Known about the structure:
Pseudouridine synthase, elongated, 31% strand, 18% helix, Structural Genomics Hypothetical 15.5 Kd Protein In mrcA-pckA Intergenic Region, Chain A, alpha+beta, 3 domains, 7 helices
Amino acid sequence: MIKRKQDTVLKVAEPAELMDFLLAKMGGMAKSSVKQLLGQRRVKVGNAVQTRHDFMLKKGDVVTVSSGRGNSQLNHPKLKIVYEDDDLIVVNKQPGLLTVAATPGSSETTAYSILRAYVKKQNARAGIYVVHRLDRETSGLLVFARSEELQHYMREYWRDLVTERTYIALTEGCLEPREGQIKSWFTEDKRNAMVYSSPVDDGGDLAITNYKVLRTTPPQSSPQGMGPLPFGETGGVYSLVELHLETGRTNQIRVHLASKGCPVVGDRKYGHGNESSPIDRLCLHAKVLAFIHPVTEKTVRFESPVPKEFNHVLM
């Protein structure tokens, strides 16, 4: 466990306005500072965040003043902060944005560069550190650490800290059986940056993915009644699949689904590419991420909605 300064917990002895209560209890803090705490969403009454300075407290209420930062407003079309404290930032990334630059010194905008500029505005000496990554075209939840020490700790114990990691994919075809496990061994060819899957242990890295087909479109027949149309034309079966990772190998979901003949829609690398997709993107989304907070040791859980365009394909 990594330690940090504790939140301030105050018990209300008699009815009072929140502003008056905090002024009396927070060691001579100015009104402007109390308003800043409220605006940063760092004050809770019970389990609820309270931002109104004139909120009436009752005898027995418990007021908690967080030592961390409140949820922030980050105005960027490709990145949204969903959680922030003194230790971590959790974001929702849109497709088309790299987690971190592929080459040192690159000027390309990334999730890392956006957050780095954001924390530097708060404190010129602040830093931000990548805990894990998503592919450029994969959307969803990402975690960044605010210290190098915490980054190293979370990377080393990532598998122990993560309690839930769920992805949603739109696939070509339908997996059979509709619920099960894909287990294989991965080998990466660094010459072409491709990952290959073997159903038997060939000395590669074990990869395990659990899946469940949630919805499937009915196959469409050609006008001449010649059977289901191939992908890339006007028909074919698409499936919405929920996936849970037991291991975290490079491109694991994309490789596993392709190995079963049901590649992720829009996958140029392992599937048929965007030319076969009704959506101009890789249809893979990191929907749920839950993990044990390395400082508080409490489980935190975040969920990002499934992109609307995935469901539109299934209508």
